[in-house]
Amino acid sequence: MAFVMPFFAAIGSAAGASAATAGAAGLALTSGAFSVLGAVQQGRQASAAAKSQANMDEYNATMAEFQARQANASAGRQEDEQRQRARQTIGAQLAASAQAGAGLNVDLLRQSVYNMDADSSAIRYEGALRAQGLTDSAALSRSSAVVSRDRARGATAAGYVNAAGSLLNAGTSYYRASNGVR
Fold first, then answer.
1. pLDDT attached to residue 18
2. Residue 2 lies in a domain
3. What is the pLDDT of residue 102?
4. Residue 83 belongs to what H/E stretch?
5. How many domains does the chain have?
6. Residue range(s) defining the domain that contains residue 151
7. Low-confidence ranges of the chain (pLDDT < 50)
8. 4 in a domain, yes or no?
């Protein structure tokens, strides 16, 4: 540690300070340089973290949109399957009625068709609700990504502003140290 004060004195002398204040002036300049570098690095790290969050939000939005398309497709398949089962049930009812010699029961047929349509509509509606929820989630994630990108730009700018403040502070400290002002 014995080399520290001569090191700062050399920096201060190189910057034009008198021998008596060279160590303090060198310390002020070195401290200022580290503060400037630290402020810039902190801004860059905050920016990188915000960009990473934006990328994650974009990924989540893409996945939610994919899941919304899957929900619609799944509901369509379920609706088709339900309609097929309902048609088979109606066919079996008609066959049983004809085999029994009872003739066509129009009320039973009407009710069966009504139930088939109601079930199909419910399946389609549930799928649409799931898809809409996922689409809304995707929009929210995309909005969050925009905010994160704005925060990244702001963090970079804040790092440079803080660095400028550190530089001004270092200059003031150097001036005070080199001129003996407290």
1. 58
2. no
3. 76
4. helix 22-99
5. 1
6. 9-179
7. 1-5, 7-8, 17
8. no
